[in-house]
User: Which sequence fits this backbone?
């Protein structure tokens, strides 16, 4: 699909404005809808000079920390194969680390307490060493594991070694074989190949360029090594929006997209969080997921609006200067080409649960139980108080959110087969407040209502 001429022109203008006003050597971007590129563009010359080679959406840029999302997906693939549990401690698999009590989940969510960077030279600008050299350089906890969000590049170096240890080959080979190749992302590589932009810095007070160094980061490479193109990274945005193919279970992707660790800034209302490998944003009630990336000479962004599935990727070969273009491109699409609501249709499969709907009482609190369009149950108003949605699991239902997330709801029927009690996380709901006809934990006053 493609957007109309006016929308395309607006997107083109916004990208050109970013390159010109922010003095970026080159910039490339793409917008994804329904799993496909609906618009893409590139502006500027890869060397930043007039008359230089023009950038295209097939130009490679270093994507920095977006690399972490590929490592995280590979870790979750290992989990789904039964080779690890994310609640396991890292010392179970890497006994040589001095922080063996940290869990894999804490590493994925940046709540491990590990230091942000290495103790050696500035790893982003110098050749990387081996795993043993990384450990020998000194690695320590800055906080008690599980108590605070503290972004850790080192933590993803550890996860890369975990992948390598369990796969029996380097992390980048595992990612290539099991994620990139199946998705057709052939232009995403650990080091630059053909048609790659050089990493550049632009002088803040003059129109001058400075070439940034680029090296193999070694044991720290899982934190920011990968290179990609706007076309290739758009496939990863479509993956994040749900087009997972056979690379990852849809339920596992949903699990990764639950905000776990809030990036709390004192004095400010939080708008960012971290899931299992993915960054999360909450902007005016809209939920986004993705990741940013920065390395000397490069900036990149990937963001998907979770409700609509619209996504954007953007990359530039500049150390600094990028403004709000990534989110602005998505806003242009949302304002000019809003996603049409899904059409309503009848669902005959709900008939066997129709006798559950209506009022139920938890003590004296009234809740309305309704059948949802997704085939599940809706108890009260989801997101308000103890309202929640439930998905069917055989004869039971499982909470999807809020207080009852993951908790089982069981329907108990009387001798005539009519629903008499709902048992939810040990709480009992009845058709009338403290119904004398059914068993209420703790009993009911023999006087009844008086």
Assistant:
């Amino acid at each position: 699909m493609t957007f109309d001429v006016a929308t395309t022109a607006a997107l083109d203008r916004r990208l050109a404005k970013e390159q010109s006003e922010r003095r970026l050597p080159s910039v490339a971007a793409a917008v994804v809808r329904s799993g496909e590129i609906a618009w893409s563009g590139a502006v500027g010359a890869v060397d930043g000079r007039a008359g230089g080679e023009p950038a295209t959406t097939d130009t490679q840029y270093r994507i920095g920390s977006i690399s972490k999302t590929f490592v995280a997906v590979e870790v979750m693939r290992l989990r789904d194969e039964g080779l690890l549990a994310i609640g396991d401690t890292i010392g179970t698999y890497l006994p040589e680390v001095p922080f063996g009590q940290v869990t894999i989940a804490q590493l994925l969510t940046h709540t491990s307490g590990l230091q942000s960077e290495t103790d050696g030279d500035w790893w982003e600008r110098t050749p990387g060493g081996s795993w043993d050299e990384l450990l020998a350089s000194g690695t320590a906890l800055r906080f008690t594991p599980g108590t605070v969000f503290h972004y850790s590049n080192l933590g993803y170096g550890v996860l890369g070694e975990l992948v390598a240890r369990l796969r029996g080959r380097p992390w980048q080979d595992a990612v290539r074989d099991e994620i990139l190749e199946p998705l057709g992302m052939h232009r995403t590589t650990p080091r630059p190949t053909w048609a790659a932009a050089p990493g550049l810095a632009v002088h803040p007070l003059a129109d001058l360029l400075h070439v940034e160094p680029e090296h193999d980061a070694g044991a720290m490479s899982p934190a920011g090594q990968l290179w990609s193109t706007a076309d290739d990274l758009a496939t990863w945005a479509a993956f994040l929006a749900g087009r997972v193919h056979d690379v990852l279970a849809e339920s596992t992707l949903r699990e990764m997209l639950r905000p776990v660790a809030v990036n709390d800034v004192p004095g400010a209302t939080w708008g960012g969080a971290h899931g299992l490998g993915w960054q999360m944003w909450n902007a005016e009630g809209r939920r986004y997921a993705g990741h940013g990336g920065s390395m000397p000479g490069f900036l990149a962004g990937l963001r998907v609006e979770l409700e609509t599935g619209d996504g954007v990727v953007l990359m530039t070969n500049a150390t600094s200067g990028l403004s709000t273009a990534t989110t602005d491109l998505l806003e242009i699409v949302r304002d000019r080409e809003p996603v049409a609501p899904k059409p309503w249709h009848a669902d005959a499969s709900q008939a066997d649960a129709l006798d559950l709907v209506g009022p139920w009482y938890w003590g004296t609190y009234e809740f309305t139980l309704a059948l949802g369009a997704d085939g599940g149950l809706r108890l009260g108003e989801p997101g308000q108080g103890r309202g929640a949605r439930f998905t069917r699991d055989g004869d039971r239902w499982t909470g999807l959110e809020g207080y009852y997330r993951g908790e089982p709801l069981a329907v108990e029927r009387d001798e005539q087969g009519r629903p008499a009690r709902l048992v939810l996380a040990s709480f009992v709901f009845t058709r009338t407040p403290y119904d004398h006809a059914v068993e209420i934990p703790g009993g009911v006053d023999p006087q009844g209502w008086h």
User: Anything to note?
Assistant: The domain at 348-430 is CATH 2.40.128 (Lipocalin). Residues 5-21 form the longest helix (17 residues). The two ends are 66 Å apart (CA to CA).
